[in-house]
Amino acid sequence: MTTRARVLVVEDERQIRRFVRVAVEEEDCDVAEAACVEAALLEASASRPDLVILDLGLPDGDGVDLIRDLRAWSDVPVLILSARSQEDDKIEALDAGADDYLTKPFGVGELRARVRALLRRHVGREGGPSPVVEFGRVVVDLTRRLVTRDGEAVHVTPIEYRLLSILLTHPGKVLTQRNLLREVWGPARVESTHYLRVYVGHLRQKLEDDPAQPRHLLTETGVGYRFQP
Amino acid sequence: MTFEELAGEPRYGAHARTALTLTACAATTALATPLRDHLDLANIVMLFLLTVLFVAVKLGRNAAILASVVSVLCFDVFFVPPRLSLVVSNVQYVVTFAVMLVTALTTTHFTAVLRQRAEEAGRRERRTQALYDLAKRLAGAISVDHVLAATREFLQSQLAAAPVLLLPDKHGDTVIASTPADEVQVEIHVAQVAFEGTAFVRGSDVGGPGRHTTYFPLRGSTRNRGVLAVAFAEGDGEPSAASLSLLDALASLVAVALERLHYADVARSVEMRMLTERLRSSILSALSHDLRTPLTAMVGLADSLTLIKPPLPPAALDVSQALHQQAVRLTGLVGNLLDMARLNAGNVTLRREWQPLEEVVGASIKMLGEALADHPVKVHLDRSLPLVAFDAVLMERVLCNLLENAAKYAPAHSAIELHGKREGDVVAVSVMDHGPGFAATGRESLFDMFVRGVHETASPGTGLGLAICKAIVEAHGGTIEADNRPEGGGVVRFTLPVGNPPIVEDESA
């Protein structure tokens, strides 16, 4: 028997809350609403939501601070709604622990897809990450460090493998460039974004059907990368 | 005795000095005559020598020489027997005359040298003091006018000369007189020579009869800040070495003052620009937030009508879909306008990062998604393309606009081609379609704001898409142009400079 997932929507604009609620309820979720940071924290600690949908431009404080507070005691997935086109805000929110973002305006279909993906991952996470990841024609065995495409072994260099494994263990999550650079190359190289781009390019050459139109190793322009299973 | 009294010169003219000298000698003679019987001739000589010393101190070298000779003559005529004649009875008096003359002249010489030294020291001290005062005034000057006023006073008091300040024009390569040069005729070509050099230049005499104008470059730490033209008063002749070194010192002080004013100006305008920029971007982002919030609600609410239970009748669903589409379109238009405002405001801050073109091409195609459903995009990027430094978000904008345009005008199911290759110092990207192409006329103005192609009148749009592309590409130092392919269809081609891509080392493993 499954219980309905609880989703907390934090957004100060009532009309936006309204259609977000309609869309999320369509995914068989219970929806709680909050219009400010304070109410959101209270609601989150009381109802223990399975997903938080958060507007970054809240009137009584920065949404990024809310994410940091939340992350202190919870690993609940956080989906950012950002009205600002500036990439900096998204990066800051993602680095603070947000999982994904939607730039306003967005369609209901897009929203439902993100909500579904985040909830599925949150539930799936309880069993720990799967040691074998499949996407397209590629199978990666994370325990044996083995990458095959159409059953044939693909040679990846140690750095490529490290980059790939970080992306694969966070399916669907947007990983910022800084984050990836720090994880793969160490803190000294966080500014050398061209390394990251060149190595993602190598991985696409080896693993994507059309490296110029990737389907799994996706670019979030100006922000980072995302592995789409 | 003050220095002014010691210097003496300015108080008497040459004739007055001669007259005074002769009077002094006559007075000494008159004074000594009654004492003739009581004093030895040697003591009378002493009186004359005292007179010479006095004249030397009071009236200068030439007067003292005159006094020496006249004294010897007076002594001979009035005191040495036979009196009232130049004839000398005893030959030993010749020795007396000789010694007297030599002593008088030597006294004259040493006194004169002493006077000259004292005079020089005094002049130096006054100049140093004047320079010091000038430096103090210049340090407090807050405008070029203040600098000029201080310079003018200094030159007036020290050299009786008049200055003209010549400053570079707004391009910084030619000088123009910054003050009305009514008192001084400036030869601008000579000033230009001084401005481009490091040493002073003398003007020719055409500047005015008897006027000597000298042009001093104002040497700043990085470049010449202008030229100081100094015109000497009539009849003064060439400036002396001392005057020149004084003027050199003056020129450096003025240069430092102008340089300080220049950097103060720069700092002020930078601060101004930063404030303006900050204000503009905060207005734009507030505007963007305020416009996008209701649009987001409209898009989402229209969309959510499809989820209502029980379902709306098909006609209502049609309307809701139309509402959704129009809201999305409005959002696009508002986005374009805001982007154009941001780009048009100038000073776009590019976040240039070295990256492969392939990545942003892929991201753009994915972003357009449904809009390209009827138009497969064929991407041909040379494998040897170097990394290019560009702002990924803005370049995505360019590619999206171009691909979207191509999709809008090309017939359904025709392919859009995207080619990228290196051409010398640039990377050229072309987006080609199989549509009707661009009209032959007005092709350049396609990239202007609010201009729309002939074929476009039937389709929605503001004519901002290509203008945005142009603004972004040009901010990157590239070019953009539209053309038709010989085999039909339009092509928009833009270039980005290659620059010096960083090297990404291969892994050693």
Low-confidence stretches of chain A: none
Query: On the 0-100 scale, what is the average pLDDT of chain B?
Result: 83
- Helix % of chain B is 40-55%
Structural class of chain B: alpha+beta
Rg over alpha carbons of chain A: 18 Å
**What letter string, H or E per element, gives the SSE order of chain B?**
HHHHHHEEHEEEHHEHEEHEEHEE
CATH C-level class of the largest domain in chain B is Alpha Beta
User: Main β-sheet of chain A: number of strands, strand sense, barrel status?
Assistant: 5 strands, parallel
How much of the sequence lies in strands of chain A comes to 15-25%
Please explain how this structure is put together.
The complex is a heterodimer of chains A (229) and B (509). The mean pLDDT of chain A is 87. Chain A is α/β, with parallel strands linked by helices and 229 residues long. The longest helix of chain A is centred in the middle third of the chain and has 17 residues, at 108-124. In chain A, helix 6 (158-168) crosses helix 8. Chain A is globular. Chain A is 41% helix and 22% strand. Chain B has helices at 3-7, 14-32, 41-59, 61-79, 92-139, 144-159, 188-196, 241-304, 314-344, 357-368, 392-409, 465-475; strands at residues 161-168, 175-177, 201-202, 212-219, 224-232, 352-355, 377-381, 388-391, 416-423, 426-432, 480-484, 490-497. In chain B, the strands form three sheets. Chain B has a five-stranded antiparallel β-sheet, with helices on both faces. Chain B has a five-stranded mixed β-sheet with strand order 7-9-10-12-11. By secondary structure, chain B is α+β, with helices and mostly antiparallel strands. Chain B is built from twelve helices and twelve strands. The N and C termini of chain B lie far apart (94 Å). Chain B is 53% helix and 14% strand. In chain B, strand 4 and strand 5 (224-232) form a beta hairpin. In chain B, helix 5 packs parallel to helix 8 (241-304) and helix 9 (314-344) runs parallel beside helix 12 (465-475). Chain B folds into four domains: 3-133, no CATH class; 141-265, GAF domain (Beta-Lactamase); 284-345; 352-497, 2-Layer Sandwich (Heat Shock Protein 90), CATH 3.30.565. The chains are: A alpha/beta (229), B alpha+beta (509).
